[in-house]
Amino acid sequence: MRRPATVFAIAAMVAAGPLSAKVADTSDNGFVTQDVAEVAAPPLETWLALIKPGNWWNDAHTWSGDAANMTLTPQAGGCFCERVPGEDREDGFSLDGSALHMSVVQAYPLKNLRMRGGLGPLQGEPATGVLTVTLEEIEGGTRIRWEYVVGGYMRYDVETIAKAVDGVMSQQLAGLRDHLGPLGGSQDPQAAPEAEEEPSIEAQIDALQVAE
To answer: Most buried of 94, 143, 161, 193 (most Cβ within 10 A)?
Structure first.
């Protein structure tokens, strides 16, 4: 079991963004996070990496504890899903579980990927979100724009959950950036030390107390 998340751990996640990360807007019933990274790979290579999250998503932010269990089908109605292996039983019989992170609503290869769903702790809330990933060819590589718009009823303080979600989303985009190689060949100087263990989804839920 991973150590519980703390306010300092959440702050570290927020600070560990890629080239640009921010909570762009908040309201009484939602928020918007925006993140940007530039990678030293052409749009085709970037797209092919984007649709294989098992290669770059952070293990700590999965339900199974292993990003290799994640798959993404880049077509309308496609699933960004995760297999959750069942625990071995004494009788040798086990049942695998599964989780749907998001559903694809739009896919334009090499340009745009749009998905709908509540990530992490938001999965247990009526609120939902739309993640739009845009790829833009630039000199020497690709600029990735990553916007997550969340709206609807949720039992969290909006300011608190927005900052935590932005930190986690930034971390995933940084993982994709580092998988492809950052433009310029150097990693973000603000990247969090690898030695610091990241909190699990369950730990996030414990840390982000549901508002009474």
So the answer is: 161
